[in-house]
Structure to design on (404 residues):
């Protein structure tokens, strides 16, 4: 799964204030259902279409010449609009006279152009444990992967994922319940769906990361992450916390690992990187940490981006740390350059929050983008300093006339 494990762990720790203890790579069973139904979709009116309908409803105009004269438009323009509105079921025509249908009246009243499609066919996705529909973000085929058993077997990287199983079939009553949902748009549903019918049901699997974490009171939390978003999925997290089958699998996996097993695994991991003289320690929050010498970072043994982040091992997670402040400053600048600035260009308003989070993650006293810009200048990273300055001032270049 292209979604980095570290990103999920960092969101849990620094976005939510929890202590991540283990990351489970899971394959969540999902029903891929081909549904046939009569659907009503809504979209915004084109300006001329709405005024033509208002002319019919409010001024009693009913022909092309009448509407063209009233609005001062060419008759071909009006005729084209009328033909479109008749085609989507908003108008009837008899002897050259147009009248609004019930759908047209409703659309005009609610200022939404409704279109009815009969025999509409579409694929819909439902998590397999309760047949609850997945949200809209899971319909982006360019981002989210659904894997069949054959595809899973063919991919060498996926045996490390634990496949969840369940015995329930698809609950077809769910389709009838869709029409009554108030949050249809959130679940990629049309404005109205009538007479839905399942034509085919295939079980596929959605790769997710599930992070086990503890809060300040010691309560265990589960947060689910997928390719669909950078933050935890509320619905899937809730499913994993409340479903007995999933909860039982997680408990069995967790109970199979003793605290000393995790410590041994961390030592083995360090030895594999020729860092056998480093000893793991427990943090005050109950997690594990390894503090490495500054010379290690940026070498083959450890990338600089790992500093302040986590390593996910088979038995749990461990924080990677360095006591050297200069090295952490280097890590801060690298993270700003590789992760924060590209995201901030899409949403400049979040630049301050992202900067504060990365600085807090590295225990550095830089709370604002301006402070990090100045750090970049002192470190000789003029390119990053200029990019940050552009973002801070909200334009392509800083206006320096006031400095003269």
């Amino acid at each position: 799964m292209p979604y980095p494990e570290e990103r999920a762990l960092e969101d849990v720790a620094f976005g939510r204030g929890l202590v991540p203890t283990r990351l489970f790579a899971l394959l969540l069973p999902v029903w891929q259902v081909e549904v046939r139904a009569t659907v009503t979709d809504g979209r915004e009116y084109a300006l001329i279409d709405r005024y033509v309908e208002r002319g019919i409803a409010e001024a009693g105009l009913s022909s092309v010449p009448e509407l063209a004269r009233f609005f001062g438009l060419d008759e071909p323009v009006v005729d084209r609009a009328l033909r479109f509105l008749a085609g989507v079921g908003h108008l009837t025509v008899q002897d050259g006279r147009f009248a609004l249908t019930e759908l047209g009246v409703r659309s005009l009243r609610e200022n939404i152009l409704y279109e009815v499609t009969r025999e509409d066919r579409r694929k819909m996705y439902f998590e397999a444990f309760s047949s609850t529909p997945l949200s809209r973000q899971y319909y982006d085929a360019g981002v989210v992967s659904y894997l069949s058993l054959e595809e899973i077997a063919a991919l060498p990287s996926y045996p490390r994922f634990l496949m969840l199983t369940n015995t329930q079939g698809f609950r077809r009553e769910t389709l009838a319940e869709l029409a009554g949902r108030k949050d249809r748009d959130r679940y990629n549903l049309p404005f109205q769906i009538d007479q839905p019918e399942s034509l085919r049901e295939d079980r596929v699997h959605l790769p997710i990361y599930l992070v086990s974490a503890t809060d300040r009171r010691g309560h265990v939390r589960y947060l689910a992450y997928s390719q669909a978003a950078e933050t935890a999925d509320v619905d899937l997290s809730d499913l994993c916390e409340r479903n007995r089958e999933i909860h039982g699998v997680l408990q069995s996996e967790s109970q199979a690992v003793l605290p000393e097993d995790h410590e041994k695994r961390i030592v083995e991991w360090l030895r594999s990187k020729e860092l056998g003289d480093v000893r793991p320690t427990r943090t005050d929050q109950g997690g594990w940490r390894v503090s490495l010498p500054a010379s290690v970072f940026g070498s083959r043994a450890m990338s600089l981006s790992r500093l302040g982040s986590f390593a996910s091992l088979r038995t749990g997670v461990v924080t990677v740390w360095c006591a050297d402040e200069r090295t952490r400053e280097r890590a801060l600048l690298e993270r700003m350059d590789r992760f924060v600035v590209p995201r901030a260009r899409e949403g400049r308003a979040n630049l301050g929050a992202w900067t504060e989070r990365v600085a807090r993650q590295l225990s550095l006293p830089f709370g604002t983008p301006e402070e990090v810009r100045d750090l970049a200048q002192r470190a000789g990273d003029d390119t990053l300093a200029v990019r940050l300055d552009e973002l801070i001032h909200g334009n392509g270049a800083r206006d320096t006339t006031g400095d003269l």
User: Anything to note?
Assistant: Residues 341 and 347 are 10 Å apart (CA to CA). Residues 396-404 have pLDDT under 50 and may be disordered. Residues 325-403 form one domain. The chain has four domains: 5-37+119-255, 45-111, 259-321, 325-403.
